[in-house]
Amino acid sequence: VVEGNMLVNQGKDLEKLTPGHPPLGKYIIGLSQKFFHNPYVFQFVSFALVLFVFFNLSNSLFLTLILSFEPLLVSQINKTLLDTYLLVFQLAAIWFFLKFLKQKKPKFATALFISFFIGLSLATKFFPVSFPLVVSLVLFTLISGNFKKFTQLTLSLPFAGLAFLLGHLSYFVHHPSLILFIKYIRYQINWWAGSPQVAPFSIFKIIFSNQWSTWWGEGIIKVKDWWLGWPILTSLALVSFQNKFLFVYLIISLFFLSFQAVFPRHLLSIMPIIYLLAYGTINRLWQK
After folding, report:
1. Which end of the chain is more exposed for a tag (fewer CB within 10 A), N or C?
2. What is the DSSP letter of 18?
C-alpha cells in the first residue's frame, strides 16, 4: 500500500524504493487507494476476474464455484498482495494459449495476446515466478511439432517485452534511458540473488503434510489456509493426462518451486491448474 501510494500519488522514482517486485501490481493497489480510498477494491475485482477466466477454461460453473471457496484465493481479497493480480495475467495467457493450440490455422493475434499477458505477469512479480509458464508455453509448442505455431509464438515474444516495459512506465519518466533500465533490472536480480535457501522439495511438505519450513527461526509451522483438499487434489492432478499442456505446466512449476524458499501463497499460481487437472481425473474415473 505504501509503495503503491508513493508511485501513484507521489510520483516517486522506482529506484528510490526498496528493491523487490516489479511495480505493476503496486500501481494497481495505488490506483485503488487513490480512486476508492480503499486498497482492496481491485483485489476483489481481480478475484472476480480469476473466476471469470477460470470458468472459460473449465466450462464448469460447479468447478468455478468450488474454486471460489479455495482458502488460498479467498484470503487474498483483504490483503494487499500481488498474487491474485499475477494469477489473472497468467490464467489469461493460458486461456489464449489453449485457444491458440486449437486453431487449425494459427492466428498471430492470438500469439500476441499470449505474450502480452506474459509480459504483464513479468511486470507484476519478480520475473522468475513466471518462468515455469514461459518455459511450458515454448516447450510444449516446440514438442507439438507444429512449426508454424512455434514460429508465431516465438515472433510474438517481443510483445511480452513491450508489456513488461509498459508495467514500468513511470521509471522512464525519471530515467528516459533503456540502458539505465537494464542496469536497474540487473540491480533487482542481484538483490533477489541473496534470497534465503531452504531444503529442496519443501513445497511438497506444505501441500501434503501442512509443514512449512520457515527460514527466520520459527522452524516448521502450520499453514493457516491449508485444507485436506490440497493433498487430495494435487494427487489427482499428478495422475491426470487429459490436458497435456496443463500437466506439463504443473510439473515444471512444482519442480521450480522445489528449489526455492517459498511462501504458501506462491501455490496460488498453480492452484486453479490443480483443480482443473483433478477434475479431469475425477471425470475419467467416473466414466470408467
Report:
1. C
2. P
> Is residue 214 within 8 Å of 221, Cβ to Cβ?
yes
Encode burial over 99-133: b for 16+ CB neighbours within 10 A, e otherwise. Answer: ebbeeeebeeebbbbbbbbbbbbbbbbbbebbebb
Q: What are phi and psi of 176, to 5 degrees?
A: -75, 60
Whole-model pTM above 0.85?
yes
Q: Tell me the Cα Rg of the chain.
A: 19
92, three cell numbers: 489469461
Kindly report, residue by residue over 116-163, the tens digit of the pLDDT: 999 999 999 987 789 999 999 999 998 888 889 999 999 999 999 999
Instruction: Give the rounded distance of the alpha carbon of 191 from its chain centre.
Output: 21
213-246 tens-digit pLDDT = 888 878 899 999 999 999 999 999 999 988 999 9
Matching residue, cell 497435456: 244
Distance in angstroms (rounded) separating the CA atoms of residues 32 and 13 = 20
